[in-house]
Fold this protein.
Amino acid sequence: MLSEPLRDDPQAIATYLSDKFEKNELSEILTSLSVVVRAQNVQILGRDAGLRRDSLYRTFGGKVDPDLSRVLMLFEALNIRFVVAAVSESNAFCAAAGDKNDFGMHHPTSIAHYLDRSFERNNLNEAVCALKTVTRAQNMSALARASGIPRETLYKSFGGKVDPQLGRIVKLFAAFGVSFTVAALPPRRRSARPKLGRPRKAR
């Protein structure tokens, strides 16, 4: 049964999710997040993530495109983090960006390196600011064509003030030639989670 090795095991969860995220296929990503959530004691997971139990089921049921903030809250509770890696040696807008590109962030390797640091701590503000910086460093018309996201939506979703949906980030990453993988964070002390059922009542 798949849920058993994924229960309370950050390394197993990271390995499983990495395989799903690296293809930049949103449907597979949403399904895998649902599998991971349902493998846990959801009531205790919700407590650790700061999300209601019903909200966890709704957000990670495999049909909703979640906001980045909720994914990061889930990852923090699971003791895992996003890793951003280059999956291509070039992308569709490198030539359009050329030497005018700020920070040299038109190349997948440079983009991945910059974004990876912003996701290290599961901090929404750091991630959103980094996504804004990298997005605005591109030729926006070329990026819109490559990602399939209209220019106006790119400016709104990655302008640094909006909590972007995971699906839009996946589209953006595919255009950049990068993808998410997932890594386990160092072990930390926390109260043990009951394996099944509801947490025991205090006597």
Remarks:
- Confidence is low (pLDDT under 50) at residues 99-103.
- The first strand starts at residue 80 and ends at 86.
- The first helix runs from residue 3 to 6.
